[in-house]
Each structure stands twice: as structure tokens, then as C-alpha cells.
Design brief:
The protein has three domains: about 210 residues, no CATH class; about 140 residues, no CATH class; about 220 residues, Hypothetical protein af1432 (Orthogonal Bundle). Helix content is about 60%, strand content about 5%. By secondary structure, it is mainly alpha-helical. Strand 5 and strand 6 form a beta hairpin. The strands form four sheets. It has a four-stranded mixed sheet.
Length: about 675
Amino acid sequence: MGKTLDNFYKKQSLVYKYVLYFISIALIVFFFPRGGKFKYEFQKGKPWQYENLYAPFDFSIKKTDDDLIAERKQLEANKSDYYTFNEQVYKEVVNKYASSFESTFSSNSLSPQNKKRLYNIGTVILDSIYLDGLFGEQILSKEVFLIKNNTAKLVPADDINYLADINSSIDDYIEAYNLGSNKTQLRALLTSVLRANVSYNKSLSDKALQEEFSRLSFTRGNILEGKLIIAKGEVVESENFNILNSLKREFESELWKGSNYYFILFGYTVLVALVLVMLFLFLKKYRPEIFDNNNKVTFIFVNILLMVFITTLVVKNDENYVYVVPLCILPLILKNFFDARLGLFVHVLTILILGFVVPNSFEYIFLQIIAGIVTILSVSELYKRANLFISVGQITFIYIIGYFAFHIIHEGNLDNIEWITFGIFLLNGMITLFAQPLIYLYEKIFGLVSDVSLLELSDTNSKLLKELSNKAPGTFHHSLQVANLAEAAANEIGANAMLVRVGALYHDIGKMNRPAYFTENQTTSANPHNDLPPKESAKIIIDHVIEGIELARKNNLPDRVIDFLRTHHGTTLVYYFFKKQQEIDEDVDEANFRYPGPMPFSKETAILMMADSVEAASKSLKSPTYTMIDEFVEKIIKGQMQANQFLNANITFKEIEAIKKVLKQKLTNIYHLRVEYPE
């Protein structure tokens, strides 16, 4: 039973990866839109590259969005306007005319008979004006529906009087009668009492327009099964492009019906599984330290799932905005936490997954891969804020150039450019700037460390380094010197200079517990090791590594920095005390005088081991010369190589030679002889 549990615990890391693998496949397939993938890729203006295509079934030709918009505009231009006839207004106008007539002509010397005749003429004119109604606003339509007595009747707009033009109509009516000097007063009276009694009925007009829209057909004709749609080599022009799009829509909507649904799900699952297997194989073969760390593997998969989820969400809502998704955040973040090669590899795999669901997949894959390569090549030292802005500008520029190129290929000219696409690319760039706060968030969630955090840790006023400078000033000065040497060497061979510098600053913090036992902190001739046996002295020296790791964990230093504490002495011997012990007893157990390791396993940790050993030993040089420094550096690093300390580090002989050259140059600058000036 105990052996079974032991095997389970040993394999639980692998079991976790299997669980993460299958959950990721299920989530990605679940995110995918429910629609089949048309098996032909075609573009307007390019030749049909496949065999002759015949209609596999009957389908309708869908109208394009432009056609539907044009038809809607035509319906709006020819819509039927409804106007309501108000009988009550006419009655009120007649009553007002009657009451105003007496006051208007009371002082007039008209006989009762002539006054009655004049009154009746005004009434007849009002009846004529209000026969078909009186508009209050200008009418643009030639015909309108006039609602009178709850009945809508189509009447010419010219038959209905317009309030603003009524004076000329009144003049025409008055001129038909011989009224003499009374016509001016009657005209003024009639003009003053007139009110519009025909008003626009917006609700009814809008309802009628919506009914017209509902009767609008989204298709224009049918294609029968077996009919030739396009021949091989034929250019995809406007008409057959529309037919092919109609077939594609019909195919994708029908494909997920019945048993096809499960076959398509199976196909998607297999393809996604293959892509994710490639990722695991890459990590296992080329990034074993990441593969063995479940936290880092989870971090990579979470980023892939996040990009797939956001992209598929945009495609489901409006595929025209698919380039709003800032996919270049993915390689940017992965390069920041890991390396450029892994960032680009994961970026390409993610794009291959998204190629199943995005429109114009070739264009999408091409543009996103190019943008990802630009991201990898341009983004460096994210702790410098300007670098991110410059990189985002370059990425946006690549998107725009790529869009121009594809548009020219499709259209053959620069006409019909969709300028909103440039806005989408600019928005993509602005969202990509969100990488900075996202990096901070990932650091807190997954416990990773970025260059921004390294910059903060390199501050010598930080709590831990301040404590080191107070308790062990000699060690602090030694760490600063090692940091300068290591940083220069890292820059020379293209390693992570910021990481090396931070590792160098903290590599000896374990000496704070017993600073007097280390020569750089001894200010007097008294050496506490003189009173201790060599074995115990060696243990104190070796323990500064273990104690430094404990102190680093207590102060929440990242694992990437702690790696430098663990490896900066590798598995080398504490040679001085080992030799002293041999003088006492020839039968010495070497293990008691050897650092526990591990050996350096990266360029950065190897650089620190070289810089640390060279700087510490250089203190023993008396009156150094160029030749002495050269031989001194060669001897120390040759000894480390003969002890196989760099066996696990991915560092080449050429890089080691470059590092030695930098160390010699720096030490020469430090110990160069000054000209003695006369007093």
C-alpha cells in the first residue's frame, strides 16, 4: 500500500498535466462557434484553384449586405406617409370666423343683405380650403394616406392645402367674387382664423415602414442541385462570389444537423489535441525546467485559453472586429516571463487553433504570425516604458501594411478601403498596452517574476540589501562589484543582464548571519577561523548558501533569484579549509568540504559563478599587472570547467571566452595603476 501511494505521489505531476490537457481541449472545442467549416477557401478577384464546383444541393442566393441596405433605403425613400384629418379643428375655425366676422365688419356701412352675402362667401372659402384638409408642414411625398373617419385614403399631396402657401389660394377664391374694398378685410380675417387640421401620424407611418421591411426578401433566386457554380481557373467575380458565399453559409448552417454534429466535434477535438500535444512535446524536449513546473505549464495554458475565448466571443458577435483582440499580448507576456522562442511557438500554435473559426483564415494566420514575429523581435526590456509604446506602434504598422497588401490583391486598386479597419488596428494597439498591468497581475497570481519586478529588486535601498549593507558591508560591496562584472558579461553574450544583476546583488545574503567569518567583513587582524577546526570552518562557509536561501524565502524573493543563491558555488570545494584538514588528517571525507549545489543550469547562473569567483579571488592580487590578471582569470575559470561546473548550463565555449575577455577588461579597469603625481 505504501509503495502504491509513493508511486502515485511521484506521478501526480504527470497526472495533473493529463488533466490540464483534456480540460483545455474540452474548453477550446466548447468555445468554438457552432458552425461547420467550408472546405474551400476563396477570395474575390482571385482564380478558383479547385476542380469545377457543382451545387451539392438546392440553395438560395443570399443578397449581400450592400444589396439589403440599398433596398431598405429605397423603401424608406418610397414609404407611405400617414396623416390624420382632424374634424374638430374645422369646427373651431368656423366658430372663430363667425365670432370675429361681426367685430371686423361692425363699423362697415354694409347693408344686412350684403353683410350676409360676404359672410357666406367667407364660409364657402373655408369649406373649399378644408375640403381635403390643411397641412401644417411641407410634404415631400407625391401621395399620402389621409385618415378621415377612421378610413385611410390615398390622395395626391397637391390636393391638400399648405398653411404657409394659403394666402395665394385665398386670393384666388376672393378674386372670383366682386367684393370691392371688402376683400382686403375678408382676406385678413380668413388668414387669422386658419389652423392646420392635417397632422403627420408618425406611429402609423413607422409601423407601415416596418411591415414593408418585414416583407423584404433576403434572397434573390435559387441554385438547383448539380448546377455548375464555378469552373477551375475562373476568376471569382462579384456574382459568383456572392453565390459561393451563399453556398458557404448554407453549408455551415446545415452541417451541424443530425449525426454530423458529433463527427464535427470529433474532428475539432482531434485537431486541437494535436496542437496541444505539440506544445507539450516542445516543452518536454526544449524547456524541461518549465515542463516539470506545473505552475508555469498552467500559466501557459491559461493564456492560450484566454486568447481563444476572447477571439471566439468576438467572432460569435461580430466577426468584422476579430482584429480588435490583442493577440500579440500572448508572445509579449511569454517572452517577458520565459524566452522569445517559447513565446513565438505558443503564439503560432494559438493562431493555428483560431484559424478554424475566424473568417479569411489565411489572411488572419499570415497577419498574426507576422505581428507575433515583430513582437518577439522588437519587445525588450519592458521595464523601460518607452519600449512597449515603440513595439506597439510597430505592431500596429505591420497590421496596416498587411491590410493594404491584401486589399490590393483582392481589389486590384485602393478603392473601397474600409477605413474603420484602421481604427480597429489602432484599438488593438491600445489594448496591447494593457500588457503591463496584466504582467503585474500574473506575477501575483502565479508567483512569476518579470523584468519590472527585477528592476524593483535591484534597488539597493530595498529592505534586504539595506540590511546586508549594515550587517556585512564588505559582502555588500563585493556583491555590487560582482553585479557590475556579471551584468557586463551578460550583455556581451546576450543573456538576461537584469536577472544576472539582481542575482548577483542577493547571492551572498546568507553571510549576514555570521559576517565576521568571511574575510571581506573582517576589519581587524583577528580571524575567528583560527580558533576553529577546518571542518567546522568549512561548514560555516558552506552554510551561507543554505541560510541565504532560507532568508530569501522568508523575504519572498522570486525563485528565479533564489536559483542564483543555490548555484553560485555549484558543487565546488572549500579548497582552503580542505587543504588545512589534509595537513591534519590525510584521510579526509571530501563531501564535508563540498558545496551542496546544484551546479549552474543556465547562462545567467554560470556567469554569476565565474564573476563571483574572479572578483573574490582578485582581492588576493598584489600589484596586479595585465599578464597577472589574464593568467588569474584563465586559471579560475579553467578550474571550474575541469570540475564540470558548467555541464548543465546551456553555455558554449565561445561564450565562455567572451565572458573571460569582459572579466579581464573590467578587472584591468578596476586595478589599473595610476600615475603618481609629485607632491
